[in-house]
Amino acid sequence: MKIGITGATGQLGQLVVQKLKEKKTGAKLIALVRNPEQAASLKIEARTFDYDQPDALPQALEGIDHLVFISGSEIGKREAQHYHVIEAAKQAHVKKIAYTSLLHADTSSMILAPEHLATEKMLQDSGIPHTILRNGWYTENYTVGLKSAIEQGAIIGSAGDGKISSATREDYAEALAETIINDDHIGKTYELAGDQTYTMQDLAAEVSKQTGKNIEFVNLPEEQYAEKLQQVGLPEGMAKAFASLDYSASKNDLYNQDQMLSKLIKRPTTQLHQAVKQALIEIGYNL
Ligand SMILES: NC(=O)c1ccc[n+]([C@@H]2O[C@H](COP(=O)([O-])OP(=O)(O)OC[C@H]3O[C@@H](n4cnc5c(N)ncnc54)[C@H](OP(=O)(O)O)[C@@H]3O)[C@@H](O)[C@H]2O)c1
């Protein structure tokens, strides 16, 4: 049995490889990556796999039974890229795919939703047995900015008082590992999110509590937030996309209470206070 993992050099993919190793199923793991040299630390076979190189993909999938298909990271290019991957999987007779979609992809106002929904449809049309993991936000999307938030005394965004049920990459990686090795999940679409729901005000309060500093949440209209992001160096397109996504969070697009993720991983998802603590340790904050 061979399990291929796309995006295995990415942050989620590396954790999926680690979780699959821990499961000790005896399956051979193969990293399907743009740059095999970057996959050396994974210590598994690595094959070149670029979603933009459709002609090379079927051969790279030769012998792969099950495919962990991590969505690409270039917004706007992904429908075509994912089509290439699914067509190649058909040609290579891949027997099962687990795909990382977006929470509430069918109803979400997020600009990411159409590409994910199109990919889900392609998977359905492909005839390949599959599981769709509609992942909510990574808690790390917020904790990655804590250093500057502490310096400024503020977390800035456009999420208003939107309810957010995020989980860590590690939580989602465990779910991916579980769904690719267990056939019970074939044909299922899971809405995956954290057990705990919080607002950006709650996040600011948690950071204040743990650091002993007063950190406010400052809510800005989407356009003003995009301008702020540009001022700190983000390219215009990316700044507008991030602000738009954050504004979607104000409409509760990141809220879910299915608790399916914790059911899949058979433990509670990582709590906000744990993720904040971990992030503060990583930035060397003296707790
Ligand atoms: N749920 C969330 O909060 C959230 C947030 C951000 C992104 N996402 C989605 O979840 C995915 C995984 O997240 P992550 O944190 O692991 O992101 P990441 O660290 O940016 O990793 C993305 C991975 O996709 C690979 N990739 C991108 N374009 C590719 C292409 N054309 N061909 C082959 N591989 C390609 C990258 O390859 P390289 O290693 O060669 O760069 C990388 O391994 C993202 O790609 C995105 O679709 C979700």
What does the model show?
The protein starts with a strand and ends in a 5-residue tail after the last helix. Helix 3 runs parallel beside helix 4 and helix 9 (222-231) packs antiparallel against helix 10. The chain has 12 helices and 9 strands. The chain is 43% helix and 15% strand. A 7-stranded parallel sheet has the order 3-2-1-4-5-6-8, with helices on both faces. The chain has 287 residues and is α/β, with parallel strands linked by helices. The protein has helices at residues 11-23, 57-60, 78-91, 113-126, 140-143, 146-152, 169-181, 200-211, 222-231, 236-250, 260-265, 272-282, and strands at residues 2-6, 28-33, 45-48, 66-69, 96-102, 130-135, 154-157, 189-192, 216-219. It is globular and about 55 Å long. It folds into 2 domains: 2-135, NAD(P)-binding Rossmann-like Domain (Rossmann fold); 137-167 and 193-256 and 270-287, UDP-galactose 4-epimerase, domain 1, CATH 3.90.25.10. The protein binds NADP nicotinamide-adenine-dinucleotide phosphate (NAP). NADP nicotinamide-adenine-dinucleotide phosphate (NAP) binds next to helix 1.
Compact summary:
This protein is an alpha/beta fold. 43% of the residues lie in helices and 15% in strands. It folds into 2 domains: 2-135, Rossmann fold, CATH 3.40.50.720; 137-167 and 193-256 and 270-287, UDP-galactose 4-epimerase, domain 1, CATH 3.90.25.10.
Strand and helix layout:
Blueprint: E1 2-6, H1 11-23, E2 28-33, E3 45-48, H2 57-60, E4 66-69, H3 78-91, E5 96-102, H4 113-126, E6 130-135, H5 140-143, H6 146-152, E7 154-157, H7 169-181, E8 189-192, H8 200-211, E9 216-219, H9 222-231, H10 236-250, H11 260-265, H12 272-282
Parallel strand pairs: 1-2, 1-4, 2-3, 4-5, 5-6, 6-8, 7-9
Helix pairs in contact: 1-7, 3-4, 8-12, 9-10
